[in-house]
Write a structure and sequence with these properties.
Blueprint: E1 2-4, E2 7-8, H1 14-25, E3 30-38, E4 43-50, H2 52-69, E5 85-92, H3 98-115, E6 120-124, H4 135-139, H5 146-150, E7 171-175, E8 180-186, H6 191-201, E9 211-218, E10 223-230, H7 238-250, E11 256-262, H8 289-295
Parallel strand pairs: 5-7, 6-7
Antiparallel strand pairs: 1-4, 1-5, 2-4, 2-5, 3-4, 8-10, 8-11, 9-10
Helix pairs in contact: 1-2, 2-3, 6-7
């Protein structure tokens, strides 16, 4: 059993998101567990599980639908992106080996590059070079700077053409361990506060190990957000991130409004966590990965 969590650059048009979900749901042997969309990010996260062959077919169906309905030349959103299908990670579940996910990432990457003429970069455990291991390095410059970036010998794609797809850009496909997408919303509209807090808490800034973070504006709500990825929740958990954000925000006279988990969370990530103190928005048992697998 493998989990696949594609992130697509569409979070505003409900009809398009529904069509993308139907593309996945039409593949036998794949369980679509969750769809989470955010209009400010203009991004949707799909969580599905299955074995290698059905997942391969589901990703192909997803690319076909996405390329027909997402145009990055007119896309605007707070979240960095290089592609209509921005990132496709494969995550081993149970006794599945990481090597199986790496092999699937490479198989899918080759097919996407050939069938859809979309450049593909392999990342994390599937990366072909250390330069491409981290997703933020691949995405730096975003879609708008992609053509110039790809002209460098360092950024020739692993699969597909050596220029961006005109409307779909490029995609990152990889294999990784379980990750928690966790956001903390702040009671201010000052984006510089969120960016300073994110810089202070992320690992690359000397902050918390296994934490990636960025500041995001939630214009519709008049708030800003510290958007984080916990790449090793056994080392740095949810409450550690919440406390760090609250502490750093307080330095700027700002308080925390709430926090949220995007998509699903492994059950063991909640063990020992004081969930009520996290001010989690709309959180329930339906967001626990194992529960969704059992019930779907």
């Amino acid at each position: 059993m493998i989990e696949c969590v594609p992130n697509l650059s569409e979070g505003c048009r409900a009809g398009v998101v529904d069509a993308l979900a139907r593309a996945i749901g039409g593949v036998a042997g794949v369980k679509l567990l969750d769809v989470s969309s955010d209009a400010s990010h203009n991004r949707s996260v799909f969580t599905m599980v299955g074995e290698s062959v059905p997942l391969f077919e589901a990703v192909m169906a997803l690319f076909g639908r996405a390329l027909a309905s997402i145009d990055l030349t007119v896309h605007r959103g707070e979240h960095p992106r290089i592609g209509a299908v921005d990132v496709v990670p494969f995550v081993p579940l149970g006794q599945t080996a990481m090597a199986d996910c790496v092999a699937l990432a490479r198989l899918v990457g080759a097919a996407v590059g050939d069938r859809f003429r979309v450049p593909v970069y392999l990342y994390e455990e599937a990366a072909s070079t250390p330069l491409r291991r981290h997703l933020e390095d691949i995405r730096r410059g975003q879609f708008e700077a992609l053509a110039e970036k790809m002209a460098s010998p360092d950024w020739v794609p692993d699969f597909g053409p050596r220029r961006p797809h005109p409307t779909a850009g490029a995609t990152a496909i990889g294999a990784r361990g379980a990750l928690i997408a966790y956001n903390v919303n702040l009671a201010t509209d000052r984006i510089e506060v969120a960016r300073r807090v994110a810089s202070a808490i992320r690992q690359r800034g000397g902050g918390l190990p296994g934490v990636k973070a960025m500041g995001v504006r939630l214009a519709a709500r008049g708030l800003v957000q510290v958007s984080t990825n916990l790449t090793n929740y056994r080392v740095t958990g949810l409450s550690a991130v919440f406390r760090a954000v609250a502490r750093e925000a307080a330095q700027h006279g700002v308080t925390v409004v709430e926090s949220e988990i995007v998509g699903l969370v492994p059950a063991d990530a909640l063990v020992g966590e004081p969930v009520p103190t996290l001010r989690l928005k709309d959180f329930g048992a339906h967001q626990i990965l194992e529960n969704r697998i059992e019930r779907t």
